[in-house]
Structure formats: C-alpha cells, structure tokens
Amino acid sequence: MTLDYFESSSSRIGSIPKSLFNLASLSVLSMQTNGLTGEIPAEIGSLVALQILDLGNNGLKGTFPISLFNCSSLGILSFDELGLTGTIPSEIGELRNLEYLNLKYNSLAGTIPSPLFNMTALRIIGLESNRFSGRLPSEFGHGLPNLEEIYIWSNQFSGQLPSSISNCSKLTIVALGANSFSGPIPNSLGNLRNLEVLNIPDNLFTDESSVPELSILSFLTSCKALTRLALAGNPLNGTRSEFNQ
C-alpha cells in the first residue's frame, strides 16, 4: 500500500495502528483527540517522510522518543495536551525544517535546549503551561529569523528578557505571562515593527525610569501594529496594566 496521508480525529481509536509504521511514504499523520494511551511508540521514527505529525489532546504519556528526530522533514509537530514529562532533547535541533512546534499543556520541565534557539525555519513556538525553567539565552533571537509567534506563558522562566529578541523581526505575538522574568522590559522591543500582541503579565518586570508611565509606552510607539499590551501583575509603579487599540 502507498499511503501518504492518514487523518483520524475524534474517532476514539485508542492506539496508533502498527501497520502505519510500514508506510515509508506517509507524510501526514493526524490523530488528535482519539483517546490514545501509553507512550509515543519508538517506531514513529520509521516514518522518515513525515511532514506533519499531530497527536494532540490524547492520553499519551512518557518522554520524547529519540527516534522521532529521524523524521527530518517534519514541518509541523503538535504534541499538545498530552502527559509528556522529562525534558526536550537537544536532538530536536535535527528537525531543521520544523516551522511549528506545539508542546503546550504538558508536564515538560528543565531548560530549553540551546539547539532549539537555532532552528531557523521555526515560525511558531508553543510551550505554554509546562514546567520549563531557567533563563532565555542572551543570544536569543539570532538564530530564529523567521519566528512570528512565541507562547511560553505559565512556566517557571526567570532572569531578564534578552534585548536580542529584537532580532526576531517578524514577531507578531509575544506571550510570556505567568513566569518570573525580571529586570527592565528591553527597549529593543520597539524595533519589532510587526508586533501585534505583547502579553507579559504576572512577572517581576520593573521600570528603572523616574517616569514609568511614559518610558514603556514611548519605546513601543514605533510598533504601529500593536493592538494588545498586557502588563498587569508586574511591579511597574503606576504603568497602565493593559492596552487595547
């Protein structure tokens, strides 16, 4: 059989048919909301032609199968709302064609492996509602020239937001709320001319200016596309916590 597309959503299949792992030409495997249980099979790595893999909203648990990184053609990887634990393996950097990474609503922990910050094809990163910790690297942004949306809210990130984020010149959405980021909000955010949403509430951001109401908004005036600004829950001394345009 030559099959390159398999989609079965909300069918309550319960497990991934083992026969699928023999389909060397399979490029799309979408099985979200199917009541899948157990761990993600190591055999998934035999599907070397995969471009889209969506197993979201199932009962799958365990850690990332290292064999997955044999699927070097992957452009979309969606493992959201599973029970994944452990860390993101550094081998994720081998997915050089990956454009969309969706790992939200799991129990993944640890720091983000440095190779992820050099995946030049990435357009969307969704890591929200996990247990990730640590700091974003000071060179953040240099290796993500195509990044458009980043969602990492509701984790345990800390430290300052690197000013190098402005190197992600295509960013439209930055959602970093409910972490422990601290220090000043970098002025370089004002260089993100395509920015539409800046959502950074419930952190520890401070404002070092004597006129905080003006300092934050002043460097964002060049963000002509900005329609949503959320700052509530930061010790910013009087700055308006929310802005909608």
Automatic annotation (TrEMBL):
Keywords: Glycoprotein, Leucine-rich repeat, Membrane, Repeat, Signal. Transmembrane segments: none annotated. Its main location: membrane. Gene3D superfamilies: Ribonuclease Inhibitor (3.80.10.10). InterPro entries: Leu-rich_rpt (IPR001611), Leu-rich_rpt_typical-subtyp (IPR003591), LRR_dom_sf (IPR032675). It comes from Hevea brasiliensis. It is found in: Membrane. It comes from the Eukaryota. This is Leucine-rich repeat-containing N-terminal plant-type domain-containing protein. Pfam families: LRR_1 (PF00560). GO terms for cellular component: membrane.
